[in-house]
Amino acid sequence: MTRTAPAPTRRPAVAAGGPVRQGPGHRKAAWAAWGFLAPIVVYLLAFYAYPMYRNLELSLRHYTVRSFVQGDAPFTGFANYLDVLTDATFGPALWHTVVFTVVSLAFQFTLGLALALFFVRNFPLSATLRALFLVPWLLPLIVSSSTWAWMLNSDSGVVNAVLGVLGAGPVHWLTSPDWSLWSVIAANIWIGVPFNLVVLYSGLQAISPSVYEAAALDGATGWQRFRHVTFPLLRPVSAITLLLGLVYTLKVFDLIWIMTKGGPSGSSTTLSTWSYRLGFGNLVPSFGPGAAVGNILIATALAFGLLYIRLQRRQDLS
Amino acid sequence: MSTPRRWWKTLIGLALTGVMLFPVYWMINVSFTRDRDMRRSPPSWFPVDGTLDGYRAVLDQQLPYLGISLVVGLGTVVLTLVIAAPAAYSLAKLRPRGGGALSFALLIAQMVPGIIMAMGFYAMYLNLGVLNTLPGLIVADTTLAVPFAVLILTTFMSGIPQELLQAARVDGAGAVRTFRSIVLPVSRNAIITVSLFAFLWAWSDFIFASTLDSGGDHQPITLGIYHYIGNNNQQWNAIMATAVVASIPAAVLLVIAQRYVTAGVTAGAVKD
Fold this sequence. Notes:
The complex is a heterodimer. Chain A is mostly helical. Chain A has two domains: 34-77, no CATH class; 89-317, Orthogonal Bundle (MetI-like fold). Chain A contains 16 helices and no strands. Chain A has helices spanning 12-15, 24-60, 65-70, 79-86, 90-120, 126-132, 135-138, 141-151, 158-165, 180-205, 209-217, 222-233, 235-251, 254-260, 271-281, 287-317. Chain A is flat, with a radius of gyration of 26 Å. In chain B, helix 3 (53-94) runs parallel beside helix 12 and helix 6 (134-158) packs antiparallel against helix 9 (188-204). Chains A and B meet through helix 2, helix 5, helix 6, helix 7 and helix 8 of A and helix 1, helix 2, helix 3, helix 4 and helix 5 of B.
């Protein structure tokens, strides 16, 4: 990586100091550099590494409320993981996580791309409208979640009122096991579209107009231009948008918890809501299994995160 | 493109925006609806014959929560900047050995799901005795913003011309002086972007608030709304009025700082 290139080569003042490149000037510069980094190094260790270590430790011991306070829980190895993996909730929770993530991403990306293509040619008011599209993404999740919960209320929600006018019977969006997962997915898509729109829009803007002119000279139609010019050129940005979306969507917790608490009867439980329920949602917390579920989730997120970083590196090089 | 065609697109754009923002409109509409009209079918589409009862309830019951959120948000901004700005300067301009590894660690840190951090913080805070305290919540909330802040600030500071910093060095300024009197003022825009997002994320945080501060005397607005939903399922005008008020920072941010917002959203994904 270019960032780790030795500093002196970039600094004439030190380079002019002669052959002794590891002289006191250099060492002083290194001290200064790490002095500025000291706060964040301490911070990362204390507030990222340590909580994650505690989380790992939680998952490897058998904790009760008492031993949680006293810190003398017995080491049980992978027992919590075994419990969790054989729990009847695990299969459905994993499946809901996959469905939630894949369906959300597919719709967010498609709608975001369609809107980005719509907005990329300026028209009167386009900048203002594009800004307004950001609102769902900026609202606190508790605000959007509770608004959606009320809109989807079985008896008094506006969605069922509209369906009633159209002659369809009321749907129990949040209280029926058949619908709850789809309801939270719909709300999540609404929240995620703006992010996809903004990122893909800036990706589209980075494509030079001359490419389109060349394509037009060659007689390409609108669809051909999209298929053979826009889409391939947008691929790096698309890949990163999808991967970032993936990492964010795997994390989604607030929305589901506020709208359905993962219910009814676990029908919208994902790994993150299950983890929260185990650790904090019950009267008697099971921190060990909760931490174990969390660690399974983080392993998944990190795997995709590493993929993202690799993709971005490749984009940097090209 | 001819003018009529462009206005036609504006119409479609308005329609799309209307559909997209319908839930926001509905939130506002419900916040003005009278209790007795709340369960009417069909619902009233416009807040004619509305009421301010919901907002009165906000003033009566939610002001302390809003105040706490403001404090937590500002505290998060300050702590985030104090940690992130020097780090970014070092990574961008002083480039120590091992800086690359640190940037990598920050990228990874961004991907850790909140629930894991919450559980780890809970265990840690319980032992330290800082559960249900504001400083504890502020520190936890900064983890939402610090990696992002370092990435944005590093990108920005890398663009500061080296000549500018060298001129300062020739004048005898050390690294600290250079940082304080040149790098920070020049990076104003990036610092604003970072501050806005840090504030918004702390203001919106639910998971840390509900795990680390649910038993506290000083709770943020996200918990205010959450208790509302849990306690009085009937008073939806009050719940939605609180939601409207809780949305104000996002709205203000969008109006006064739209270009910073867009810059922030795309920073992680698109390279210049």
